[in-house]
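Tutorial handout. Part one gives the primary structure; part two gives the three-dimensional structure as C-alpha cells.
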Amino acid sequence: MLFKGIRVGFVLTGSHCTFAKVIPEIEKIVSEGAEVQPVVSYAAGSIDTRFGKSKDLCDKLQEVTNKPIIKTIVEAEPIGPGKLFDILVVAPCTGNTMAKLANGITDTPALMAIKAHTRNQRPVVIAIATNDGLGFNAKNIAALLNTKGVYVVPFGQDSPLNKPNSIVAKTDKIIDTVMAALEGKQVQPVLVEYKDN
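Part two.
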C-alpha cells in the first residue's frame, strides 16, 4: 500500500465541474491505505449547481473516507496545533482560493485548513482548476510555484480555443504528485498537454 499510515487532508473548493474526476482519486488514496479527512470550502459544501447537489457531494465524501467533513473555519483551525495531517491536498483548487492563498487571506474552511497545516511546514499539493489561470491568476500561480512546501499537480489548458486562459490539473496525476511531495520533490513535468482523463 502506497500510503499506509499516511494522514491526508483533502480539501475541495468550488470548481464543481471537477468533482466527478476528483472523487475517484480520493477513493484510490483511501484504497492505498491513507487515512483521509475531507474539508470543503463554503462554495463546495453549500452550493447546488448543474453538476450536482452539495449534499450529495458531502454524503459521498463521508462514505468514501468514513470521516465527518470539516465545513467551518472553527473546525479547520485545530489542524495546525494538532498536527493532524502529513500532507494536505487541495483538489480542485479554484482561482479564488489560489488568489487568496497567495495573498495570505484566510476566510474559508479551505484556506484555514491550508494555513493551519502549513504552520507545521508540511507539504501542500494543489490541483488547479480555474478559467483565469493564464489571466488574472497567472501571477498567483507563479507565487505558489515559488512557495516552499507547495507542490502542484501537472496542468494544462483544457480548452485553448474556447477558453484560452483556462487551466486544469490532470487529476490522474494527483497520486504521483502526492508521492513526490512526501519526499520533498515536485513531480515533473508541471506543464502538460491537457487531454480529458
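Part three, for discussion. Strands lie at 7-12, 35-40, 87-93, 124-130, 150-152, 155-157, 167-169. The first helix runs from residue 19 to 31.
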